[in-house]
Amino acid sequence: MRPGFDPATQPWVVANESLPAVPAGLLTPDRLRGTLNQPSTWTLELSRDTDLRYPGREGTPVPAAVLIPLVTRENGVHIMLTQRAAHLHDHAGQISFPGGRIETSDPTPVAAALREAHEETGLPANHVEVLGSMPPYLTATGFSIIPVVSLVRPGFELAPDAFEVAEVFEVPLSFLMDPANHRLYEARLDDGRVRNYYGMPYGKHFIWGATAGMLRNLYHLLRNGLQPR
Predict the structure, then answer these.
(1) Handedness of CA 26, 32, 35, 41 (dihedral sign)
(2) How many Cα atoms within 13 Å fall on the side-chain side of residue 29?
């Protein structure tokens, strides 16, 4: 299922809305732990795709889960992302978190996210410390995705599934938690509808759609949960 337009070339504006960056000094493993266990004081940004489902995807959303892996590198925390293989039916070639459908054999969404991350990238579960889950995110392709936020201890070796994953790479968390790097795009569809979506270009990679939307919500969560002491 492809969007029918080039998402990286549509008109855009910076989506900072006078919002501050989360200070890099607060994006440490010790400060990140426990942020999802605090009372919710942040406002969820709903998917801008909710009313623009692709044809044939208007029914009950398919439950899914993704892992948001925050890798604790010596030079700061980084987010691990994947580029999906170009031949896949859903989200082909897009930048995504590792994850997928919640199977009946998965006892919880967290278990599904960990399973999918291991299957897609080879990330071993014993390097993953789950911090908690964010509210579901509804996509235009008809998935209801639960993002599972985690810290990942370095020293792991990846073994990406070449059928599903074209590349695994990392982006500094501080870059993605700065709204100056968030763009709001507008695409006019052939049927006259207008689709708005977030995009976060980083080097040769264009992070957009559901992944960018979930990162935007992670920003709101951390901005409100990581207040200076």
Answers:
(1) positive
(2) 16
Q: What Cα–Cα distance (Å) separates residue 185 from each residue in 36, 44, 136, 158, 214? A: 29, 19, 22, 33, 16
Longest dimension (CA), the chain: 51
pLDDT digits (tens, 9 = 90+) for 39-70: 666 666 755 554 555 544 566 889 999 999 99
Residues in Cβ contact with 144 at an 8 Å cutoff, skipping those fewer than 6 apart? 61, 62, 63, 64, 136, 137, 138
172-224 residue pLDDT tens: 999 999 999 999 999 998 888 888 999 999 999 999 999 999 999 999 999 98
**Count of beta carbons in the 10 Å neighbourhood of residue 184:** 18
Fill in the DSSP letter of residue 75.
Answer: T
- Please report the domains of the chain, with CATH numbers, ordered by start residue: 9-225 (3.90.79.10)
Q: For residue 2, which of 97, 91, 101 has the smallest C-alpha distance?
A: 91
Q: Name the amino acid, one letter, at 188.
A: R
The residues, any chain, with a CB within 8 Å of residue 152's CB and separated by 6 or more, are 69, 70, 71, 72, 80, 123, 127, 128, 129
Question: Strand pairing of 99-101 and 62-73?
Answer: antiparallel
- Residue 54 is given by DSSP the state P
